[in-house]
Amino acid sequence: MTSARRFLAGFLALAPLAQAAPVLAQNPAADMRLLDELAVDAARYAEAVKEYRQAASVVIKQTYAVKMRSIRSKYEPLIAVNEREEKDRRLDAIAMFEQFLRKYPSDKRWTPDAMFRLAELYYEKSSEEFLTAQENYQKALDSPTPPVDPAPKADYTPTVDLYRRLLAEFPNYRLLDAAYYLLGFCLSEMGQDGAAKQAMLALTCSNQFNALDAPPESKPAAASTKGVMPDPYKDCKPVRPDSKFLAEAWTRVGEMHFDNGELPAAISAYGRVLQFKDSSYYDKALYKLAWSYYRDNRFPEAVKEFDNLVIWADQKKNEGDKFGSDLRPEAIQYLAVSFFEPDWDGDTLPDAQTVTDPNGGLSRAQKFYQGRENEPHVKEVFQKLGDFYFDSTKYDDAVAVYKALLEKYPMDAEAPKVQDKIVRAYERSRNMVAASREREALGRQYSQGTPWWEKNKDNPEATAVAQQLSEDALLIAATNVHASAQACKAQAGNDATKLIPCNEQYKTAADLYEKYLAAYPNSKRAYEFSQYYADALFYSGQMDKAIVAYTAVRESNLDNRFQQEAAFRIIKAYEDIIDKMKASKQIEEPPIPDENNTKPPVTAIPMPEIYGKYIGALEWYIQNIRDEKAPDLEYAIAVMHLRYRNWPEARGRLKKIADTFCGKSEMGFKAYDAI
Predict the structure, then answer these.
(1) Per-residue burial over 577-599, b = 16 or more CB atoms within 10 Å of its CB, e = otherwise
(2) Closest Cα partner for 581 from 611, 555, 558, 559?
């Protein structure tokens, strides 16, 4: 059913299902043709809205373009004038500072500040020249004759030379930490990472490094280091303990080591940023610390630090920070990746990775988070771990993780999706029996009226997903079980012992159809599945319920495809009930009267209630279906009245049959003989 028809059907809903069985209600207003017409109108309206939005979008874009041109024409000339004035003033300032330094090259009070400010002006000038060169190079690349020369590079040599002079001549300058930092920054921008790291270490570890010394030669990165982790910076002392540049400087040192594969040194540097919890570099350093442990195959340490980052991010968000940390999603991912890793013991061979093995990913995660399961991020980690197993085609492990997740968080909004993943994992591994069982659970546990639905009813997004998944699951599960029951019955034949499991399958199918019809009474296929539901009840031996279900199908105004079959099944269900009542001696059927068993005066025998219902079913069929079975059914009613000595009723019915069929068929002779 389209979304429009689903919406309209809500207003033309069927009456509530009977408590004994979910059956289709009878509501003349629910005319399917009217639904189709209204659905067409709704689709036409949706198309008109789409066209309106497209037209409005074009108008808005055009208006925006006009407005932007107006703003540019007003402000761009002013911006250009200001930029030229700024550039001129910068050149004037540079000339004045250069003149000052020529005149006062070594004044202890003023010369260092002049050097520091002049170095900044040199940086601004070089940066502007670099940006201009980049823009011109990009324009040239887009031209018909692009350049073959390499792209321009930043050159901050005047700034670097002046900072080095400042540090050499005034080693106790009050802004020494800023000078170290800016020297390292400029060298890094120029691609001189060794010298840049030397400058940053002179800031963070001044008792061991000098910015003016040549950087040590870079050594090839070692392979994974196991055992005690070396800490090359454990005794470092910064040039200024209260410097605001320490967190960023240590982060940059860590990045340089990390990029060069020097993981122990990177870990040592990143770890020193963690003392600055209020720094904007805290989460980045914590993330890279964890990632360094991961790359060094120290998975327990990596898990600990990734987890610390997620906890910190959630705390920041709870304190009012809008985002917490943009690295949180990656930290969750690498937590799962770390648990998923096959070799935790460092022997270069995969650990045993069965779901029951203590070294498996699930067991590792459960052990790490034992007692912490209520922390908000823990279920995300388990979900991601299951997804990694699933995407790696390790479906048994994925199922184990997903089931552990559902066991711990059965009412979580994402639970239907997790259950659906279990179904798909079993399908991918070709375990169709288990897939069918889990699909049935999906349909039963997350449809309307379930505890999960009640818990999440105020979450429209979650319930919409659950409704789609559970509806599809119930449909597939019910029809699959029904088909299996039919195949079982065909194979069993008349063997009562072999029919027992078939009847159980029919019962399961009936339960699933019942759940589906109760949850989705307005489904486009509700009429069809009501018939299937009644059939499953009938063949599972639940005749009382089958009669109610067949009656609803028989009298439904939604369709009449199954009317004849439903009406006849009602008759057969009553016959089955009567046979069982006879066998258990609950009723005894009187013989057909003759001169030996009936003496005048004849008195009518009270007919059991079940026969009255049976006759009602027969009469409905005769009056409404009128097929070749009608004469036999008419005769059966007459014989029942005859047995119970209701001779006026019996005589009238038999006479009608005799008059109609006398000389035409054996039925006329039988009726005449009975009279």
Answers:
(1) bbeebeeeeeeeeeeebeeeeee
(2) 611
Helices (H) and strands (E) in the chain, counts: 26, 0
Specify the 3-state DSSP secondary structure of 341: coil
Q: What pLDDT is recorded for position 554?
A: 95
* Nearest to 232, CA basis, from 181, 259, 260, 270: 270
CA distance 510 to 518: 12
Look up residue 450 and give its DSSP letter: S
What does the alpha-carbon distance between residue 455 and residue 498 come to, in Å, rounded to a whole number? Answer: 43
Percentage of residues of the chain with pLDDT beyond 90: 57
Residue-level length of the chain: 675
251: three-class secondary structure by DSSP: helix
Compute the average pLDDT of residues 229-248.
Answer: 94
Confidence of residue 670 (pLDDT cuts 50, 70, 90): low
pLDDT in tens, 255-267: 999 999 999 999 9
Instruction: Name residue 432's amino acid.
Output: M
On whether the CB atoms of residues 243 and 205 are closer than 8 A, the answer is no
The first and second tokens of residue 656, run together, are 């009608």
Instruction: Say which DSSP state 273 is in.
Output: G
Name every residue whose Cβ is closer than 8 Å to that of residue 630 and which is 6 or more positions away in sequence: 621, 622
Q: What angle do CA 624, 629, 634 make, to 5 degrees?
A: 75
pTM, to two decimals: 0.67
Q: How far is residue 296's CA from residue 159's CA, in Å, rounded to a whole number?
A: 38
Matching residue, tokens 């919406």? 7
Helices 630-643 and 666-674 pack at an angle, to 10 degrees, of 10
pLDDT of residue 19 exceeding 50, the answer is no
Q: Per the structure block, which two tokens stand in for 278? A: 């209020």
Q: How far apart are CA 228 and CA 625, in angstroms?
A: 89
Number of C-beta neighbours around residue 457 at 10 A? 11
Alpha carbon distance 516, 549 (integer Å): 14
Question: Exposure of 481 by Cβ count < 10 A (0-12 exposed, 13-18 middle, 19+ buried)?
Answer: buried
Give me the DSSP letters along 18-34: PSSS------TT--HHH
Q: Which two tokens stand for residue 538?
A: 């009938």
CA–CA gap between residue 158 and residue 450 (Å, rounded): 73
Reported as a pLDDT band with limits 50, 70 and 90, residue 349 is: low
Asked if 270 contacts 305 with a C-beta cutoff of 8 angstroms, the reply is no
Q: What is the mean pLDDT of residues 320-346?
A: 84
DSSP string, 546-557: HHHHHHHHHT-S
Rounded to an integer, what distance in angstroms lies between the CA atom of residue 593 and that of residue 597?
Answer: 6
Instruction: Take residue 264 and report the two structure tokens written for it.
Output: 């122990």
d(CA 430, CA 419) in angstroms, rounded, equals: 17
Whole-angstrom Cα distance, residue 640 to residue 510? 33
The single residue listed with the structure tokens 């030669």 is: 217
pLDDT of 4 over the 80 cut: no
pLDDT at 29: 39
| Those residues with Cβ within 8 angstroms of residue 134's Cβ, 6 or more apart along the chain or in another chain | 151, 152
Q: What is the DSSP string of 500-526?
A: HHHHHHHHHHHHHHHHHHHH-TT-TTH
Angle 111-141/32-103 helices, nearest 10 degrees? 130
- pLDDT at position 9 is 37
